[in-house]
Design goal:
Bound molecules: malonyl-coenzyme A, adenosine monophosphate
Radius of gyration: 23 Å
Distance between the termini: 56 Å
Helix content: 25-40%
Strand order of the largest sheet: 2-1-10-9-11-12-13-14
Number of helices: 15
Length: 508
């Protein structure tokens, strides 16, 4: 038996001198050098007791070593569990208790705070291991790997075995671990490489974080399947992006990347003359952004639609019409349907309903949550995405909204329930409602509406929640009201609040 993902993603270029990564310090790394590092990491993890199916959780800054940790984990038979670097220790604590990783890798600066989490792991009397990795790719993980053998025989894993767990918060406020198999990742990477025509000649500008589906699986896997190279940046800094765009052939980003680029006078046809493809996803791209980008650069941004649980589901075509405001037809092998909101019949073309997906890209379920998993699948095996959309006669999907209470801020998901639970417990707060309203940079911004005797003001709210919630989840505006508007069933009417506070960020 082989290691399904590694054999397809890495093995074809093992030992190759072809360039894979252009690094921020001016250095570069070939497929062969990267593959050797993956082997060293796999060896180190195995020496630390990692067995098939064991989890490796990582809350580390973006560096090429993070990618080696991702693939080293999977090559060693483990399950990679990347965590947003913005999460607080309290948030990480939940993931560690829930996923019971054998190994946790963190920034050296966070080790003191996170060490007790691993030491007190219930299921493992000996405790798990804590390793460190910093933004420069140094730390005990790197030191330990440096001395290891550069050869490693991949631990056999079949298509249905787990390769990764990615947590997504939920409408109940409790985060769920989406389990992704080797074949979920492989089938999606293969389909996208083909649909988007990635080849060995591609130079992908990679400025996304690598703890989410978009930056880790879509961007990295696709590029590696094609055998191309990446300009690997730690994040989105406009001067660096402008500088690197002149030698890129492709970029993948969230809509904020494109609105920020449009604000820069240096963006023009000449700057992007070598680029063949701009891809957008993770949040809705406004048709006006699509049109403005076309006017400035001559490029029609290709918008696609996906999610953590499913990878990518639909994509506008590479050749053919890239229609602004739509996310294109289903990818080959993926079945996308729209059913009426009660979950009954398939909705006729042009009618709004629930978007449901089935295919090799769709995850098998949530980690240790069989009940929740059952609720989110239909009897015939479709995953209920929580998005509302409509299909055109020609199969193009338009996402028109969400049935789940979710805010997407700069491509990060924020689940109101999770924040409301924290705010409701603050002194002076009666109850709270969290809403998302238009934000010029992040698409949606987080607003809190509070009731109570003496609810805290904006600054105080930020202070009170800072140890509990990652910064991107914290309300950027706080309003006080006597009572929250409710319908006859007692449900808070968030649509009314969204209308009332629609201009909360208009001055930014
Ligand atoms: C940073 N901040 C945010 C934020 N990102 N606040 C709200 N929403 C965000 N997304 C806050 C910081 O805490 C800080 O607050 C201030 O904004 C500036 O921080 P920064 O670090 O300078 O921001 P920046 O690096 O410019 O980040 C913005 C960004 C980044 C948009 C470039 O958030 C980003 O890369 N987003 C991409 C997310 C992504 O990859 N999503 C894919 C999910 S996968 P303060 O107050 O302390 O100054 C998925 C499936 C699919 O959804 O379909 O792809
Ligand atoms: P996540 O849980 O982070 O994977 O976020 C997935 C959600 O992002 C989807 O369910 C959609 O609501 C949203 N999303 C992703 N891509 C798009 C897109 N192109 N247009 C609109 N919404 C999108």
């Amino acid at each position: 038996m082989s290691n399904h993902l590694i054999d397809r993603l890495l093995a074809p270029r093992a030992g190759s001198a072809r360039p894979l990564l252009d690094l921020p310090d001016g250095g570069a790394l070939s497929y062969g050098e990267f593959g050797a590092r993956v082997n060293q990491v796999a060896r180190l993890l195995t020496d630390r007791g990692l067995g098939p199916g064991d989890r490796v959780a990582a809350q580390v800054p973006k560096s090429w070593q993070t990618l080696a940790l991702y693939l080293g984990t999977i090559k060693a038979g483990g399950v990679f569990l990347p965590l947003n670097t913005a999460y607080t220790a309290r948030e990480v604590g939940y993931f560690v208790r829930d996923a019971e990783p054998r190994i946790l890798v963190c920034d050296p600066g966070d080790a003191g705070e996170l060490e007790p989490l691993m030491a007190s792991r219930d299921a493992d009397p000996g405790g798990g291991s804590l390793l460190t990795l910093d933004a420069a790719g140094r730390g005990s993980l790197a030191d330990g790997a440096d001395t290891r053998d550069t050869e490693f025989d991949a631990v056999p894993r079949s298509p249905g075995d787990l390769a990764a767990i990615l947590y997504t918060s939920g409408t109940t406020g409790r985060a769920k671990g989406a389990m992704l198999t080797h074949d979920n990742l492989w089938s999606n990477a293969e389909a996208l490489t083909d649909c988007w025509r990635f080849t060995v000649d591609d130079v992908l500008l990679h400025a996304l974080p690598v703890f989410h589906t978009h930056g880790l699986f879509v961007a990295t896997n696709v590029l590696m399947v094609a055998g191309g190279r990446m300009i690997f940046l730690p994040g989105f800094r406009i001067d660096e992006i402008i500088h690197c765009l002149s030698r890129a052939t492709s970029m993948m980003g969230v809509p904020t990347f494109y609105t920020r680029l449009l604000q820069d006078p240096r963006l023009d046809h000449g700057l992007v003359r070598h680029v063949r493809l701009f891809v957008s996803g993770s949040a809705p791209l406004l048709a006006e952004t699509h049109d403005a980008f076309w006017e400035r650069t001559g490029h029609r941004i290709l918008e696609r639609y996906g999610m953590t649980e499913t990878g990518m589901n639909t994509s506008n075509p590479y050749e053919g019409e890239r229609r602004a405001g739509t996310v294109g037809p289903a990818l080959p092998g993926v079945n996308v349907r729209v059913v009426d909101e009660q979950g009954g019949e398939t909705a006729p073309a042009g009618e709004i309903g629930r978007v449901e997906v089935r295919g090799p890209n769709v995850f098998p379920g949530y980690w240790r949550m069989p009940e929740k998993t059952r609720e989110e699948f239909t009897a015939d095996g479709f995953f209920i995405t929580g998005d509302l959309g409509m299909l055109g006669e020609d199969g193009y999907l338009t996402i028109v909204g969400r049935s789940k209470d979710l805010i997407i801020s700069g491509g990060y998901n924020v689940y109101p329930k999770e924040i409301e639970l924290v705010l409701d417990a603050l002194p002076g707060v009666g109850e709270s409602a969290i809403i998302g309203v238009p934000h010029p940079d992040f698409g949606e911004g987080v607003v809190a509406v509070l009731t109570g005797d003496a609810p805290p003001d904006e600054e105080r709210v930020r202070e009170l929640v800072s140890g509990q919630l990652a910064r991107f989840k914290q309300p950027r505006r706080v309003f006080h009201v006597d009572a929250l508007p409710r319908n006859s069933m007692g449900k808070v009417q968030k649509n009314l609040l969204r209308e009332q506070y629609a201009d909360a960020f208009s001055a930014e």
